[in-house]
């Protein structure tokens, strides 16, 4: 699967710290973009593709923890790795609770940061794949007629053709046709496949 | 600009403790030395009122008891052992407390007084044992005269001890090392004297000139005793009155007053008839007089104890707050040094990785190494700055141009201000006064205030920070950092200078404390004002070389 390039965003107000993290990450082959404030990061239009953020907690302007809140509020699930000059327990607990991937205390071991970045990108990659897959399913689901959707929902719930026919006051043959159409449009190879798709779509199905 | 808003004196002690090493606050809550002790503090108004009330009450009692004074309460001998025991205990306890007092503050006068009480207490024992009708069962033989003689010795002995106490008042305080041996010697001597006198009286009972006609009635010879003791009481009283310099003297005067009332009741009003109403009233006065000093000593030790507890608590608070100031400082140090060190470690790791590649990238490794060199210099600078702050003799203080200093700070803070979209500007009056100070410390202090001000404007739309500098008579130079933020709530005014206090969720709360330590170590002061229509202004003063007033040109329009 040809994916867009993974990017690591480094946000630190300390120029030397920023350069050092950038250099370290580039030395193992990552693509790095650096920012000197959370504000400039928010203004940057990020390209598609897996990414993660290496963020200094304590900075002038909006702090690292505030950025974390803002990203969460905007619905962004980008993994965040915090680095801090002072291992404040209360702060690290707050960050981890809010979903931070890792909380590293300066000076940190390079391998710890690299591992965390690797995990972050991996997680984001999985998430974006999941998102891509879901988008495709939704597109396919949109092609179904409302009758086909009804039949698909009932079949996924484990009802037999006969039961569906009785429920919808249709003949069993008509149900079979709708079901075959739904399977074909959803590109499901088998009934279990259809059930999995139905699960993935989850709330989306209920709405329609 | 007359007063320090929101700055309490104890906070300024604290900052001194953290910054310039001022030790003044160590004694906060402790009054100096022994000025509150019974024998060294002058009597208070309340004490004088109590003493006066006692005199009035005693006079009333004496007058009231007079009509029925000679009525004999037969069979009340049974009460005598109880009375004697009470008197013995009270006087022994008084002696013990006075001795303890002496052990702490070896004043010879106090030891004399203690021995007076001890002498009086010890003589209660033979007095009670020989009292007719009390312990006949022991068959102590004819002791009719002994009781009276023992009473006479007690009666005349006690005022003599008081006179000795007064005579030794001016004697210098003894070195404390000798206190124990002095206590032992004097107590033994007093006990030996009391024992010898009692013994001598009891074995010579029948050969002594009779003081008593029978068990209840006195002989003519007895009349010498009350008159001699009254003379002694009056002399001691007048001396005490003349030299009533401490509350102990006041209480001793009352003691002598009650003793005087006692002897008058015993010998004259009751007509010398034992166990009569007047006689028992006199005895009650005797017990009262014995208790007065005891009560005074107990009250004193209790109030001293509670004061001690309070001052220990106050001292602990001071120590704790100083400790947290130290912690704040060490946290600052840790943070300032950690930053370049962390950067060095990461740069070094990056360099190693660039060199470790199958085709080493020398250029990248070189860049990382150069950054390490810069970081090393930066760390060294930070450490030397911190050392400057902690050094008492700020050796590298010198005349400096405060305007240039402010410009430098602003140019360094510019990037931060732009990131926060704050308009940062200086409004520095042209002045040519000279400030003596440490440029690193002062610029750090101003830079902290500017950083706080930029931070404060975060929640408002109109973001502006102005750094002003003008000269004001007679404070010296004033530097103000004003912001357009929401201002400082009055309940936070005091707390913002505390270590670790911060309004930011991720702040460390040390900047202000640091700035204030620097300003105060330069002889200035730092406070916060409101800005109209809104915002806060942190202002600090700095003394100017030669003073403003002597420097004619250094005026506002200079």
From TrEMBL, chain A:
GO terms for molecular function: DNA binding. The keyword Acetylation does not apply. One of its GO terms (biological process) is phosphorelay signal transduction system. Keywords: DNA-binding, Phosphoprotein, Transcription, Transcription regulation, Two-component regulatory system. InterPro entries: CheY-like_superfamily (IPR011006), Sig_transdc_resp-reg_C-effctor (IPR016032), Sig_transdc_resp-reg_receiver (IPR001789), Tscrpt_reg_LuxR_C (IPR000792), WH-like_DNA-bd_sf (IPR036388). It comes from the Bacteria. Pfam families: GerE (PF00196), Response_reg (PF00072). Residues 137-202 form the HTH luxR-type domain. The modification 4-aspartylphosphate is found at residue 56. Residues 7-121 form the Response regulatory domain. This is Response regulator.
């Amino acid at each position: 699967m040809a994916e867009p390039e993974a990017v690591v965003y480094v946000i630190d107000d300390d120029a030397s710290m920023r350069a050092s993290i950038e250099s370290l990450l580039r030395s193992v082959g990552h693509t790095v973009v650096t920012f000197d404030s959370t504000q400039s990061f928010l203004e940057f239009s990020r390209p598609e593709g897996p990414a993660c953020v290496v963020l200094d907690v304590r900075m002038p302007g909006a702090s690292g923890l505030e950025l974390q809140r803002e990203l969460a509020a905007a619905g962004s699930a980008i993994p965040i790795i915090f680095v801090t000059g002072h291992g404040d327990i209360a702060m690290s607990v707050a960050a981890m609770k809010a979903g931070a991937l890792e909380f590293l205390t300066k000076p940190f071991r390079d391998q710890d940061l690299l591992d965390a970045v690797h995990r972050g990108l991996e997680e984001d990659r999985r998430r974006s794949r999941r998102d891509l897959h879901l988008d495709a399913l939704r597109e396919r689901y949109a092609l179904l007629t409302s009758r086909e959707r009804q039949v698909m929902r009932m079949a996924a719930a484990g009802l037999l053709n006969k039961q569906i026919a009785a429920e919808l006051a249709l003949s069993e043959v008509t149900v079979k046709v709708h079901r075959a159409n739904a399977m074909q449009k959803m590109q499901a190879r088998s009934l279990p496949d259809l059930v999995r798709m139905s699960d993935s779509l989850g709330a989306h199905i209920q709405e329609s | 600009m007359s007063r320090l808003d929101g700055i309490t004196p104890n906070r300024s002690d604290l900052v001194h403790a953290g910054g310039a090493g001022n030790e003044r606050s160590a004694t906060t809550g402790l009054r100096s030395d022994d000025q509150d002790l019974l024998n060294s503090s002058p009597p208070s108004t309340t004490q004088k009122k109590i003493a006066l009330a006692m005199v009035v009450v005693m006079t009333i009692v004496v007058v009231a008891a007079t009509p029925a004074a000679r009525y004999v309460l037969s069979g009340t001998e049974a009460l005598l052992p109880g009375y004697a025991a009470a008197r013995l205990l009270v006087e022994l306890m008084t002696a013990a407390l006075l001795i303890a007092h002496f052990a702490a503050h070896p004043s010879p006068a106090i030891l004399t007084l203690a021995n007076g009480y001890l002498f009086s207490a010890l003589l209660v024992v033979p007095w009670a044992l020989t009292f007719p009708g009390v312990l006949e069962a022991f068959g102590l033989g004819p002791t009719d005269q002994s009781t009276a003689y023992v009473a006479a010795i007690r009666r005349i002995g006690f005022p003599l001890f008081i006179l000795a106490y007064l005579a030794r008042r001016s004697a210098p305080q003894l070195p404390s090392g000798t206190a124990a041996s002095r206590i032992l010697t004097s107590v033994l001597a007093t006990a030996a004297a009391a024992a010898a006198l009692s013994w001598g009286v009891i074995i010579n009972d029948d050969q002594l000139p009779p003081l008593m006609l029978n068990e209840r009635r006195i002989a003519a010879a007895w009349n010498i005793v009350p008159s001699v003791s009254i003379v002694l009481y009056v002399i001691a009283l007048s001396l005490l009155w003349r030299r009533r310099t401490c509350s102990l003297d006041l209480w001793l005067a009352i003691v002598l007053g009650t003793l005087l009332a006692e002897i008058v009741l015993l010998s004259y009003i009751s007509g010398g008839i034992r166990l009569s109403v007047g006689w028992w009233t006199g005895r009650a006065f005797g017990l009262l007089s014995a208790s007065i000093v005891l009560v005074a000593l107990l009250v004193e030790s209790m109030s001293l104890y509670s004061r001690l507890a309070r001052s220990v608590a106050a001292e602990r608070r001071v120590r704790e707050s100083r400790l947290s100031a130290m912690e704040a400082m060490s946290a600052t140090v840790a943070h300032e040094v950690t930053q370049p060190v962390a950067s060095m470690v990461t740069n070094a790791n990056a360099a190693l990785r660039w060199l470790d590649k199958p085709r080493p990238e020398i250029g990248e490794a070189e860049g990382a190494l150069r950054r390490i060199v810069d970081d090393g210099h930066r760390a060294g600078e930070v450490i030397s700055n911190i050392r400057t702050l902690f050094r008492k003799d700020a050796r590298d203080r010198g005349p400096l141009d405060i305007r240039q200093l402010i410009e430098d700070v602003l140019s360094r803070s510019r990037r931060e201000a732009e990131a926060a979209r704050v308009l940062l500007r200086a409004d520095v009056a042209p002045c040519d006064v000279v400030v003596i100070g440490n440029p690193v410390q002062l610029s750090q202090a101003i830079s902290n205030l500017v950083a706080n001000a930029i931070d404060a404007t975060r929640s408002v739309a109109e973001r502006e920070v102005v750094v002003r500098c003008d000269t004001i008579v007679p404070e010296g130079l004033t530097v103000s950092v004003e912001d357009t933020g929401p201002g400082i709530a009055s309940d936070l005014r005091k707390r913002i200078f505390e270590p670790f206090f911060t309004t930011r969720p991720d702040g460390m709360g040390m900047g202000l404390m640091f700035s204030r330590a620097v300003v105060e170590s330069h002889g200035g002061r730092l406070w916060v004002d409101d800005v109209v229509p809104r915002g806060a202004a942190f202002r600090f003063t700095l003394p100017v070389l030669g003073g403003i007033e002597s420097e004619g040109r250094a005026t506002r329009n200079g």
